[in-house]
Amino acid sequence: MRPHPIRLALAAWLALSSAGTALAQAMPTPAQTEGPYYPLVRPADTDADLTRVAGGPPAQGEVLTLRGIVRDCQGTPLAGARFEIWQTDHQGIYLHPGDGRTGQRDPNFQFYGELRTDAQGAYRFRTILPGPYTGRPRHIHAKVTPAGGATLTTQFYLKGDTDLAGDFIVRRLGKAIERVLIDAQPEAGNAARQATLDVVTGRAC
What we know:
This protein is an alpha/beta fold. It has helices spanning 5-26, 168-173; strands at residues 63-71, 82-86, 112-116, 122-128, 139-145, 152-158, 181-182, 185-186, 193-196, 199-200.
């Protein structure tokens, strides 16, 4: 019995859809410079909640919950990947001796956090929207190191930031900027923001 034409068309559409999904999954998160402010010495508290230091008072600034899945080029979630972030406080100040204003930083902000992705490759940080500073748009630095794999170093930016267009690092990304944009939306039930950003790591994507 010959397959019905509609069934054949549906099967072809599903095949194309699956191929498109696989292609989308394989698009790598673009690598970017580490920058000059990677911590020389990590703070005593390095957990995934940067909004408080060792359970102390809350940091200033607008809270952001950032979550997503880390995958390889085939779309497979990567469990146990080390995920690091570092950024400025709400004033645009880093915890780093190379930042001339580091003495005026918010002492209640952690500045750096790290975690291991869970069994589903998921990560979740609680931080603040980074403050701007002269010469760069607001951004969060990230390093992702899969178990036994190469480290991806990149930066995440805020969708809609008017300073993006004039940034020399962003201009080099071209259309790949779309894969490192944080769309910070209001979080239900409170004044915080939330965003989801998946990361695809691998040199052979």
